[in-house]
Amino acid sequence: MTLAHDPKIIVALDYADANSALKLVEQLDPTLCRLKIGKELFTAAGPKLVEQLVQANFGVFLDLKFHDIPNTVAKACAAASQLGIWMLNVHASGGLEMMQAAKEAVKNSENSPILIAVTVLTSMNQQTLNQIGIHTDLTTHVQNLAKLTKQAGLDGVVCSALEANMLRTELGNDFCLVTPGIRPANVNQDDQSRVVTPADALKNGASYLVIGRPITKASSPLKALETIHQECLLFSD
Ligand code: C5P
Predict the structure, then answer these.
(1) Is the pTM of this model over 0.70?
(2) Is the CB of 84 inside a 6 Å radius of any atom of ligand 1?
(3) Residue of 165, 232, 218 lying closest to 190 (CA atoms)
């Protein structure tokens, strides 16, 4: 698949309402990026917006991080798949059975979106992990959950681009690594502390790059997107 058909950039639509999101999306090109809808926008705008973006030919990553009993997560994944989305996710800490149920539901849906898992939220550190009773070293815990994700038959994980190298080596070339915390060189880091450039993320083995503000807050979002896309072209196989 060529990069034009499989763009590496996923633009994070971190907006409070559909109109603000649509104003940005009108300026973007679906051959250069996909779109990520998270809990805030989905709660405000609902499935109608998702369907609208799918209709406009954008691949949509529905970032709702499902985490519940297996039956409930499976039903939620089936309902999400019906919206025609490209990718969705669950929490790996929901366990093997929950992830297997999610995968089964997605497989049985008409368009079978890519299903990935969140391992450890990057807002957590060793102390917050200990507070919830997990005393395993954080990196080992990320690795263990990523392996469990693969064992459950899911397609990949969300991870820091700084972890991508290690996970690519451990989990092989077919595993999908979706990395946020991306900042082109010379661009504001905002509140991200450990940032990686698009080129370095791809060199580290990332499959897709989640990028928000460097595109959404740019004076020309399309120009920013095109520039990063060009950088991706240089570093993708
Ligand atoms: O604007 P920015 O590029 O920082 O946006 C990054 C997006 O990726 C946001 O939607 C943020 O919630 C998400 N994200 C992240 N770090 C993670 C997981 C998700 O920044 N570990």
Answers:
(1) yes
(2) no
(3) 218
